[in-house]
Specification:
The chain is mostly beta strands and 711 residues long. It has 6 helices and 53 strands.
Amino acid sequence: MNAAGKAAGSGVKYELVVDQQAAVEPGAQVFTTVQAALNAVPSPNLAPVIIYIKNGRYREHLEIKQDNITLIGESRDGTVIEAPERRATCVINGNNFRAEQITFLNPYGQEERYQAISATGDRSVFYNCAIIGAQDTLYLRRGRFYFADCLIAGDVDFIYGDAQAGFDRCEIRSVAPDGGYLTAASTAAGNPGFLFLNCRITAEPGVRKHSVYLGRPWRDDAQVTFINCRMGEHIKSQGWHNWGKPEREATARFEEYQSMDLDGRPLDLSPRVTWAKELSAPEAAGKNAWTYLRGIDDWDPTGQKAYYQALEAMAQALVINEGQPYVTADLDLPVVTKDGSTITWFSSNPFLLTAEGTVHRPAAESSGQRLTLTALISQAGRGVTRQFELIVLPMAPAGEHDPDYLACWDTAAALEESFSTLPLAALTDDLTLPVKGFNGTAISWQSENPALFATGVVIRPPYSEGDATGGLTARISQGQAVLVKTFHVTVLKQEYNLFYEDFKTGIKNWQFPPEAPVKICRTEIGGNAGPKAELEAVSEQAASLTRSFSIKPGRVISNGFKLYLSKFGQMQYSITNRQGQVICKIRFEPDGSISIYDGPVNLNDPLFPWPLYSPGQWYELKIILDFRPETVADGTVKYDLILALADDYHGPYRRVEAYSGLKGSEQMLDGDLSLNTVCFHLSPAGEALCYLDDFYLEEETAGYPSAGSER
């Protein structure tokens, strides 16, 4: 080391130097301990400071409070920072920290649980470092972290926390003979967690085969992903563990893609737990270290920003079918971009896409088919994706070659597709009919029910008249060709809506929290003079709606709602007091069952599941809570539940199940109670998982209604 603080032959200038063997002179910028060098950096520290650490075994604890600190060791195996006693070896609270060519070691065993690294700062980078301990080796909290070409060793939960971290080309080594767990994520809902890319998952000699799990969820919503990783025989075939808490299986986000053995042979992932996910190629392509860690400040610890931006530009420039949604001829998909990148195609309907990359139209007797095509644009194993939504129209009958007739045929097929997939929500609105086909054909309409039809618009009947049905006939023409097509429709009465309130007994409006990932995309006044709204999800996060009402002791509360689920999903309905304590909870599960939870004692164990429900049906749920003194004398609240099913779009309802005399722990008789409905994973954005029609809340002072009573 020369006097200028420059490593001989390196050309890199270091502000501070640590050398155990140095004869320190007064005023020199050379220190014999790393912490002494850190203490010489002012706080706050706005400019980057590089500290060069000569080879040596530094038995000390490091506490890094300042921002913009870089530690560079002379060599990874030669520069060792080791905890001298039972504490974390290195605690990092500053932002923009970087470490290169250093070993962080905590020698204390599994029972001690002391970290080699405990970090909370944002934008930290570790390059060619070794982080070695036993249980809880690497604790990452809150911030973003990037590890490249590092060794991380431990036995139980040795990579853990709620941070966002990318591990690139790292070795993850298990050391305990009896096995353990690699990760214990505590990721917050909706946030990314740990991402392992092209890593080697190894074990020291003596670690038993099939004794180590890839991870377990320390908290709900834990998120861990392994992509293109090679794994030793010590990894259990199940892959993941639920920490003895089955309810966390519903929220854990554990994923893999192209996992291999240490020799590069693909692993059979079929024995993995059913609640983990094997990613598709397009899904995996969206998970690279740059996009994973970039954040709103566009942080690029990987140096890959320009590369992925170039791929993204190629994806945006890709156009198929001339940008049209309707496919009216066999479509040959491109397999390379004009810049030379490879295009791999994935189809939501594999029967329409050949191995050669051609989208074929179905036969004439088929209806149109909606198709999602995903293009994976890649170079050197890195890629980005772009999706195209298409409607593939059926072929015309054999022998039909007249261009005008073929145009009419394609318009008729497009109309049939539109009517066959008309969602329930659209039937609750006036429907304006098209007068031109997408290909320029003319369309004129007639209705067998004139009350529904006026100047090209299907009008919803008033509440007093009820729902209406009828046929709509389209006359499609171009040149001398004419084609007639009739569609049967049901139009719901105006009072029937997806979401409205009755404003009975002083009920307050339903409330969304400000951060809820849901928007009310349409509101109007319904037939009962209450507002209605169709809800639209804007992300895959949970959205909650809450309303509150006051009740007095001695009352009986009867509350209910109508629910429409467009597909199997998860929705939770609970009744709590103003202190947030749950009296009872009802949950519609993703597997189609309905679970009842008796709060607050049994909130993790369902009393009983109801039979399977089906998507595409309306349900009416009614709950009757009895707060009369004689029913709560033993410290419980009595409640009855009634579930009814609509025979058709609008009823009448028939009772499916009724349960009477259930007991929930009494928490508060006086004050506010709240009904809280949580709709989980309304996905994809723009599609509502469930529609709520909250129709009544009544109070009674006498005369307890029976569980079998119908509204």
